[in-house]
Structures are given as C-alpha cells and as structure tokens.
Design a protein that fits this description.
The complex is a heterodimer of chains A (113) and B (112). With 113 residues, chain A is mainly beta. In chain A, strands 2, 4, 5, 6, 9, 10 and 11 form a seven-stranded mixed sheet that branches. In chain A, strands 1-3-8-7 form a four-stranded antiparallel sheet, with no helix packed on it. Chain A is globular. Chain B is mostly beta strands. Chain B is globular and about 45 Å long. The chains are: A mainly beta (113), B mainly beta (112).
Chain lengths: 113, 112
C-alpha cells in the first residue's frame, strides 16, 4: 500500500517557467489537499478537493491551479513561477470520516531562481 | 481566522521527558492532532485527541487538552535520539473538507 505519492522529489525552475506537481493516493480517499511549507513556518493550505470534479481555494491559492479528474490524482500546477514559490510542497489525503486523519506524501522541494 | 502557536525549539537529554506545548484559538475545534516530521520527510501522524477528552495516553506519548485555556500538550516519556524531529500540532474545526490549521512546529533536539 503506497499511500500518498508525489513526484518529482526535487525541482529547480527558472522565473516564468511552469510545471505540474503530481500527487496520487491509493486509499480511495475523497478529500485531498495541497500545502506549502516555508522554513520555520507551519503548513499553509493552497487548494483542497472534496471529491472528483470539486476543488476549492485554501489560504494561499494565488499563482497555483488544481484539477481533480479522478479520485486518485490531484495535480498542482504552477504557472509563471516566481521566487516566492520556492518552498516544500506536500500533498495529503483523508477519508472525511471518523478521526479524518490526513495522510501526507513525502513532499516536493521546489526552488525558483 | 484560526491560529495555532507553538514554541520553536526544545532541547532535552536522552531518557528525560519532553513536553511540547501548543495553544489554539478556535473554540469549535473537533479534533486536535500531533504530527512528527523527520528531516526530508513528510508529516506522520503521531496521535490525536477528540475535543471532549482531557487526556489520551499511547505508549510513551501522553496528550493533555485544556479546552478552557485552549492549550494542548504532548509529553514524550523516556525521550530517545530517534525522537529528534519537528512536531506540529494541528486543529480541525467544524465545516467541510476537514481543513486543518497547523502550528509553526517545535524542533525537538535530543542530546546524549
């Protein structure tokens, strides 16, 4: 059982480039989330999804886009990368039931130069 | 909006107990969680407590919740070098999508 997987692990982008961070979960969870973690800070929610075809903005959505065409996948798109988007990005999923624990992927470390 | 605060750093000797504290502002929190992050890794759930509980014990971990003061603590007994990590508390409010609000994390350093 792989849980939540993310690719790539590391990436360096130039200012203005775009890229997609991939996230896949195999737990049949309805809810999925994207967070960013800046040094010395907690996690900030970028976007979330409560099911296929449904997405909504979190706390810091500017500069990002998401889609949820399947239950398993929740890609995060960066358009026109900026140095302020240098961060570690975590994807998470949860069932939405009971304790509703969020399970996290290993993260993608992104540097924008 | 909701806010969760933690101290940034804690250093303890191996074998001692560690106590990591957290305060939060959302009085409608339903669950509160403790996550552990080791270097270069994602967050791993350590334990959680439901908001109508005062205490929860799980092996070396004890969680105390003071709902009146909105204060949460995590006690690690017999702290080991493998416990060195960043510990995040997070609270889940009511509403859809189970959104969590995370604290800034407490870096626990265990010395010999």
């Amino acid at each position: 059982n792989a849980g939540v997987t993310q690719t790539p692990k590391f990436r360096i982008l130039k200012i203005g480039q775009s890229m997609t961070l991939q996230c896949t979960q195999d737990m049949n969870h309805n809810y999925m989330y994207w967070y960013r973690q800046d040094p010395g800070m907690g996690l900030k929610l970028i976007y979330y999804s409560v099911g296929a075809g449904i997405t909504d903005k979190g706390e810091v959505p500017n500069g990002y886009n998401v889609s949820r065409s399947t239950t398993e996948d929740f890609p995060l798109r960066l358009e026109l990368a900026a140095p302020s988007q240098t961060s570690v990005y975590f994807c998470a999923s949860s069932s939405g039931k009971d304790t509703d624990t969020q399970y996290f992927g290993p993260g993608t470390r992104l540097t924008v130069l | 909006g909701e806010d969760v605060e933690q101290s940034l750093f804690l250093s303890v000797r191996e074998g001692d107990s560690s106590v990591i504290n957290c305060t939060y502002t959302d009085s409608s929190s339903t669950y509160l969680y403790w996550y552990k992050q080791e270097p270069g890794a994602g967050l791993q759930l350590l334990t959680y407590i439901f908001s109508n509980m005062d205490m929860k014990q799980d092996q070396r971990l004890t969680v105390l919740l003071n709902k009146k003061d909105k204060h949460l603590s995590l006690r690690i007994a017999d702290t080991q070098t493998g416990d060195s990590a960043i510990y995040f508390c997070a609270e889940k409010g009511t509403g859809t999508a189970s959104k969590l609000t995370f604290g800034t994390g407490t870096r626990l350093q265990v010395t010999l």
